[in-house]
Amino acid sequence: MNDGRIHFDPVDAKIAVAKGACFARRNELVPNVVKYELGSLLKKLPWEVGCKVEGAPFEPFFPRGADLPVAAPFVYKPKNDVKLLPISARLSAQDEPEAIGYFDFTNPEGDKDSVPMPAATKKGLAQAKPGSEIKKPIGKGEKAPPAITIWVDEDRRIGAEKGGKLYAFHAKPEVFPPEHDPFSGVH
């Protein structure tokens, strides 16, 4: 059965299993860091998702433990028109955010591989919490840059909409030096 939403990559599966085992072990060793049962990971966001741009502080979009799909999207209101939006995640407030990918808004038509906003999230659009507010005054004839709406669906896929167009999340590829990659055969 192929419903179009399922993609299996054996290399990513090996990495996912290893990361899952490490996450489960960390939950066992540091139970106060993860406050929900391991079985609920299928229904909850296991890390905090947000944006971190170079020297700026981490701006959280969704808290760790949020129900999936997220009840309300995050509305990011940038000061200037955004062409690339980096997305980061962190497991706890003590951890440093890690870049996990980005959105590329340079295509005015959007992306064909984008994630549609879940119906449950669309309902919550009215109660969406706004992000960065525009601080500079808008002059006569000037338009405010379009807001970017971000969500996470039930499969933990991150989606974005800008100017009425949907955009795909570009995950940062994981690269391990051969001596540290357990699947490379170089040890």
Number of strands: 10
Instruction: Please summarize the sheet with the most strands.
Output: 5 strands, antiparallel
* Unreliable stretches: 134-138
Rg, alpha carbons: 18 Å
User: Gap between N and C termini, in Å?
Assistant: 39 Å
The percent range for helix content is: 10-25%
Classify the secondary structure makeup into a structural class: alpha+beta
The overall pLDDT, averaged over residues, is 78
* Series of secondary-structure elements, N-terminal to C-terminal: HEEEEEHEEEEE
Mass-distribution shape:
globular
Number of helices: 2
Strand order of the largest sheet: 2-1-4-5-10
In terms of DSSP E residues, the strand content is 15-25%
Give a written overview of the molecule.
The protein is of the alpha+beta class and 187 residues long. The protein contains two helices and ten strands. The strands form two sheets. Strands 2-1-4-5-10 form a five-stranded antiparallel sheet, with no helix packed on it. Strands 6-3-7-8-9 form a five-stranded mixed sheet, with no helix packed on it. Strand 1 and strand 2 form a beta hairpin. The longest helix is centred in the N-terminal third of the chain and has 20 residues. About 3% of the residues have low confidence.
Note the main attributes of this structure.
five-stranded antiparallel sheet, 13% helix, 187 residues, globular, alpha+beta, 10 strands, 2 helices, single chain
Question: Summarize this, please?
Answer:
The protein is an alpha+beta fold.
Secondary-structure map:
Elements: H1 10-29, E1 48-51, E2 59-62, E3 74-76, E4 84-90, E5 98-104, H2 119-123, E6 129-130, E7 148-152, E8 158-162, E9 165-167, E10 169-171
Parallel strand pairs: 3-6
Antiparallel strand pairs: 1-2, 1-4, 3-7, 4-5, 5-10, 7-8, 8-9
